What does this fold into?
Amino acid sequence: MNFRSDNTAGAAPEIIAAITRANDGAATSYGGDAITARLTEKVSALFEKDVAVFPVATGTAANALSLATLTPPYGAIFCHENAHINVDECGAPEFFAGAKLVPLRGDAAKLSPAAIQARLGYHIRGDVHHTQPAAISITQATELGTVYTRAEVEALSRFAKANAMALHMDGARFANAIASLGCKPADITWKAGVEALSLGFTKNGAVAAEAVVFFDSARASDFAFRRKRAGHLISKMRFASAQIEAMLEGNLWLKLAAHANAAAQRLAGGLKPLPGFTIVAPVEANEVFVKLPSESAMKALESAGAKFYLWEPVTDGRPLIRLVCSFATTGAEIEAFLKHCHQP
It folds into this structure.
């Protein structure tokens, strides 16, 4: 009953097989291999547009280095206050970009043009005393497991363009968002105005494989140098690239994400009717946020072997926990967890 994170799951069998195939013989290092060379074509086909793609090992590297590429060191990056770049990356985006994160509030962990507009008065363009508006970063799916619609992304893109800012998307759970929306990856990225995407695979069953995708190659002119300078140019890159290639083969990435999403729906469906259990955010991807009846109920679940994340400090006697499903979550795990929730 491990619902602490989709990072706790192992790797999908297809990914291990791809790594094994990539291990056959020697290959040019630092991305000069044949597998990495194929990625540009395959990711471009996925997004129906010529793109620049750069494998990296971690989501933090993907976010920090893409934002550093989009943002000058005197820039301001607007994000939700719960954004991973603001809460969980130890200042990496600010370290690599030199820019300032500006965290804002928003319902369901989403940013809105109105929230950013209300803050722009503190970042007057041309005033040397102020950091300059440079980028907006959104998370898809969000930190509360909700999903931006195309209309919401387009609204943010229009606002960004009107204010000379770039739009970045943290897609650590991008596959879950696409599986939820049922749209094409292009529809919710460059067609909606996104300029750079941190495309995540590790949470979806890969082993340390992420990618930065620029939808305008000119934007990526110095990214390769930033990646090397930051220590994220992988010497045996073929192993990361092989995982990404395997994920795209036969839409494996979407099949794995759809399984995780369906597991979250099943879990949420079992929790909703239980007295004292309150689901606090729409379940649109693979995460369920639920308030428990009491701290004793949380301790009982922990004693039964359930693993989850306490989302925030307990202030009202009712813990808010996060339950995350993965490609490997089983029906048996869900039923066992729900069984213990039924018990007093």
